[in-house]
Structure formats: structure tokens, C-alpha cells
Amino acid sequence: MLDLRKLRYFLTVAEELHFGRAAIRLHLAQPPLTRHISALETALGFKLFDRTSRTVALTAQGRSFLPYARGVLEQVALAQVMADKLAAGTAGQLALGYASSIALSDLFSQAIQAFAQRFPDVQLTLVECASGNLGAQVADGRLDIGLSRLLPQRTDVQALSLGEERLVAAVSTDSPLANLAQISLAQLSAYPLILFPADYGSGLNQSIEALYRLHDRPLRRGPTGRQITSIIALVAAGQGVALVPECAQSLMNKGVTYRPMMELEACAQLLVLTRAETKNVLIDAFLTVLTEAPHTL
């Protein structure tokens, strides 16, 4: 096993090519330094330096060994830097789960960008899944943070509200609804509504279904899509209408027109889920970035 301290001594002597100057740099007397270099040569099985009373020069083996010794010490230094960052909570891994409709929001992209700039040594893993599954994955540790539209029904997960996002109607450009400045739920309910699948656990579905119940409107179910992009594609194909978060308007599709809803209650919440009573510096850091980001969902 190579002694890191002796490797540092070797590197210093190799840089100075003078035992006296090297000893001064190392804050070490010259005789002990000479003994340490001799011990390293014995351990390696070859001479590192040719020494005379006047000169010190690297041997051929010493020159060949030098970059490897330097590389080891550089890696040790990098390892120490990373260890310090891990201890301080500025490096590591963070798994972030999110509902598909949230990924389109400005808040989502701004928070990820700000976090990556602030913590470049953190490996951020993004996992898309239904809101209904986010709570369980946060609870069992598969995810550190969940961005959901659905309040989890469990005590081991805590939820922080980041506010609500308005819902807009996505209608086919060929539909008479596309000619309206605003659309009421009464008008929208005359058309098949494209939702996520019933077994998908969508928080957006729950918000929409609650809106229809609140206004006592019949909900005609149309085709389903497992992602917000597939829902918009079905609207473009004339298969029905959809209620989507305002941020979905960034999905420009020549067959779709977006219109605001008249009902003030046409909203979907945005929640941040974390494990209850869990202390984690990186989680706290990401929550801080989220709360500092402009709340234009």
C-alpha cells in the first residue's frame, strides 16, 4: 500500500530537485525527508532519484512514475473537496417526481435551472408519474420530492402548497367554441371531455371532476391520454375538449385553440410533497429554490 504522505514528499522533491528546498516547503528537516524517500524507493522496488552531493535528478523510473503519483494526489484532493461538499449538503443526489402537466410550468423549469446553477455538484434525477403515485414514492424514499396536484392521504408525507394554476379550455380549432373569447362550463359540458385514465391517479382529473360537481354539470367522458401531450393531440384530432393548466398553452398545436374559462373555480393546485419529519439539506435547498422562484405557474 502506497503511503500518501510519502507520495507528497516525492512530488515536492521532484518539483524542487533539491532536498533542502523541498524540506523547507514541507516544514520538515532534511534527514527525515531523505529517509522517507528511501523508504518509498524500497517499497516501490526502484530508485526515484539519482543523487550526488551537488545534484538531484529523476531516474527514468522516477519520471515514468511521477504523473501517476501526481494523479493519485489530485484525486485525493478532489475526493476531499467532494467529501466536504457532501458533509455541507451541497453535493449528492436528489430524486424529483412530478405530474406531467407540471413539467410545462415556468416554475418547474425555473426552479430546476436555479437549483442546478446553485448546486452544480448535485445529480438531479427527474421522474414523471401520476399524482396518485407520488405520495407513496416519496414515503418509501424512491423520491425525495414530489410535485403533485393531489393531496396525499397519508400521515408520513407532508404537503406544501405553492398556489393554484388557472385551467383553460383546449378545443379543436374547427369547433364553434374556438370562436368564443371565454368559455363557460355549461358550454364545455356539451362536449366529450378528454381526461387522464381513471386508474392513473391524476390530481388534475380530481380537480376537473370536482369543478363539474360544484356547478352540477354532467361530465361526458371522452378518450383518455396518459400524458398532457397526448390529451392535446386528441383535442386536435377532434375527439373532444379538455381542461388543462394554463402552462399547457406552450404546446402549440395548429389544430388546438385555448380559451379561458369563465368560472373562477377552474383551477388546479400545485403541491410539494416531502417525507414528514425528515431532515435533508438538499431537500430543504430545493424547497427554498421553489419558494423563491416567481410564482407564475
Automatic annotation (TrEMBL):
CDD domains: PBP2_LTTR_aromatics_like (cd08414). Pfam families: HTH_1, LysR_substrate. It comes from the Bacteria. Residues 2-59 form the HTH lysR-type domain. Belongs to the LysR transcriptional regulatory family. PANTHER family: HCA OPERON TRANSCRIPTIONAL ACTIVATOR HCAR, TRANSCRIPTIONAL DUAL REGULATOR HCAR-RELATED. This is LysR family transcriptional regulator.
